[in-house]
Design brief:
CATH class: Mainly Alpha
CATH architecture: Up-down Bundle
Structural class: mainly alpha
Oligomer: single chain
Strand content: under 5%
Distance between the termini: 74 Å
Mean pLDDT: 91
Helix content: over 70%
Number of strands: 0
Number of domains: 1
Number of helices: 21
Radius of gyration: 22 Å
Low-confidence stretches: none
CATH superfamily: Sodium/glucose cotransporter
Length: 505
């Protein structure tokens, strides 16, 4: 059992600030002599991202605290079925963009956000405004989730209090995001994903070897209770699998981070980038889950520190099996992964705010829409867009600061609410976004979609689903969570079908 932290607080502070300085310097280095003074450049990296850069960025953005901590927790607590029901829908959630990404570029060639497309497609201000709630909420939860999980990890390793570590983590991501927007996110994502993969391929086999080899994994495949060796265990499938599958696939479809990358990638690189990203992502929870199996092995006697969230079992396992240097490599990789999602959430918020919230003149709106549709602009329209670029960048950076502060405040709320851990926040986040997933897909493939059906379906799903998701997670009621997720998907789909447009004969 761990009796003290691995590092002193002073060394911990040095470690944190060193990480921040390296990320900021990398951003400055790779943005030198590049132009990010336009909306196109700051929010979409000039639409020039290639697949081998986009793939790691997609993977790193999807490696939430969920992939890093909940995947290990599931293998620790629910064995093989816990890992299966976490990994499979996560990979599918990215692969679905192999179809959705190219589709939206054919219909909205130079768009900026998914809600912008919805506004154009349905011609409804009400639906557009309603759509912004879950899309902004998704980014807020992404930032909150990873601030909280990262600070918890730092506390476990260094003893730096969670309430003190959280503003440092969000501050680091905010600073380099303010420099060059999405480009900063993509560059740091590439570096952070490289660190994650190196750490996984180094640390996990090392830990397995130290624990006694593959037999040590086999002894923990049933989870800490030993009862979950059947991959298709019905209780795990019901309590975790259904909610996770619906929620994760809904989450990417309802996440501006991925639509932003669809618009930022070169058009012919979209499918390759998402396939590459899904493969890179899958490696991480698959390998890290082995630490959960080791932690569940009764022969190793690995225990969590008192009052520590079970999602930290991976850190505890590594610290009890490996030397300090190896554990620190693991911690650096985890910190990089968490930061990549924080900065992606910040960049996505900027695109939503500057595109869908800021008020523009009629002339400016028409010029942006014409550009989004891939139509040729007149010289006057080009000058109009060029003229407002400074204001767009100012508004984008303003929104980055605001969402970082709000995310930090929510993270404090999560920290001080008892009996509310990382897994609960994860379940809430993947449940709420279910309300817009079906209408979003229908908007790309079904011409009979009507704004009335979308509005009432999404509104009812969100108003009823959000409080139920919070309460179900708070009371750890799996049946409630499953029924709530099915309700949100079902009601939004039903209203879209009932109020569909009539076919003209």
């Amino acid at each position: 059992m761990i009796q003290s932290t691995l590092l002193s607080k002073n060394v911990g502070w040095l470690f944190l600030f060193s990480f921040g300085i390296v990320m900021i310097l990398l951003t400055l280095l790779f943005t030198k002599n590049k132009h990010f003074k336009s909306k196109e450049g700051f929010l979409l990296a000039n639409r020039s991202v290639v697949w081998w850069l986009g793939g790691p960025s997609i993977a790193a953005s999807w490696i939430w605290a969920g992939a890093l901590f909940v995947s290990v927790q599931q293998s620790y607590q629910q064995g093989l079925p816990g890992l299966f029901w976490f990994l499979l829908p996560n990979v599918i959630a990215l692969l679905i963009f192999v179809f959705l990404g190219p589709r939206i570029r054919t219909k909205f060639k130079n768009g900026y956000t998914l809600p912008q497309w919805i506004h154009y497609k349905l011609q409804s201000n009400k639906v557009h405004k309603l759509y912004l709630f879950p899309f902004f909420f998704n980014q807020l939860v992404a930032i909150t989730f990873n601030i909280f999980a990262g600070a918890t990890m730092i506390y476990l390793v260094t003893g730096i209090h969670i309430a003190v570590g959280m503003p440092v983590l969000v501050g680091i991501a905010l600073v380099y995001s303010l420099i060059s927007g999405l480009n900063a996110s993509i560059i740091t994502d590439f570096v952070q994903m490289t660190l994650i993969l190196i750490a996984c391929f180094l640390i996990v086999p090392w830990a397995v070897y130290s624990a006694g080899g593959l037999s040590a994994i086999v002894d923990g495949l049933g989870g800490v209770t030993g009862e979950f060796r059947d991959v298709f265990n019905p209780s795990v499938a019901f309590s975790f699998g259904i909610v996770t599958s619906i929620g994760l696939i809904s989450q990417t479809v309802s996440d501006q981070q991925f639509w932003q990358r669809c618009f930022a990638l070169k058009e012919k690189h979209i499918a390759k980038a998402f396939i590459f990203g899904a493969l890179l992502f899958g490696i991480v929870p698959l390998l890290l889950s082995l630490l959960g199996f080791l932690g569940a092995n009764p022969n190793l006697s690995i225990q969590l520190p008192p009052n520590m969230d079970p999602s930290m079992i991976g850190i505890s396992t590594a610290s009890q099996l490996l030397p300090l240097g190896a554990v620190m490599i693991y911690v650096i990789a985890l910190l990089g992964a968490l930061s990549s999602t924080i900065d992606s959430g910040i960049a996505a918020t900027a695109s939503l705010y500057s595109t869908d919230v800021v008020k523009y003149s009629l002339q400016e709106r028409e010029a942006f829409l014409k550009k989004s549709l891939g139509k040729k602009l007149s010289q006057k329209e080009l000058e109009c867009i060029e003229k407002i670029n400074p204001a767009v960048l100012k508004n984008s950076r303003y929104s980055m600061i605001v969402v970082s502060i709000v995310g930090l405040l929510v993270a404090y709320g999560v920290h001080y609410i008892t009996a509310f851990g990382v897994k609960h926040l994860f379940l809430i986040s993947i449940s709420v976004v279910a309300c817009v997933s079906v209408p979003t897909v229908l908007s790309l493939y079904w011409d009979r979609l009507d704004p009335k059906g979308v509005f009432w379906g999404v509104l009812i799903a969100f108003v009823v689903g959000l409080p139920n998701s919070i309460l179900a997670s708070h009371y750890n009621n799996s049946t409630w969570n499953v029924l709530n997720s099915l309700f949100m998907i079902g009601i939004s789909t039903l209203f879209c079908l009932i109020f569909s447009k009539k076919v003209e004969k």
